[in-house]
Task: structure prediction
Amino acid sequence: MLRSLFDRTCTIKRLVQIEDEYKTPKGEDWKTIGTSRCRLSRKNLRATQEAPDLKTNESYMLYMPIGADIKAGDRVSLNGDTKDFTAGPPYKPGNHHIEVEVWREGSA
Result:
């Protein structure tokens, strides 16, 4: 029953350390961890005036199946969306599903 509520697909990316053949750190890059079914609901939209533009901060609640591999700080992109969300700490109510607050900032 809960599975039918997940009406979107999201891609999860994680910041990973890049190393050369000698295991010397060469920087960081975003690596795609996987995809998962999900549902997004609006939680909060805030706009503040900052010179010269209006800055917006969108906050949503993302619902995912219990087996999704997501951590705080991951980037989440939804099917067809061009701007990524940043994930907060995942919460597993009753070990039934995963709830994650996600947000993104932009200019209006």
The first strand starts at residue 8 and ends at 19. The mean pLDDT is 86. The radius of gyration is 16 Å.
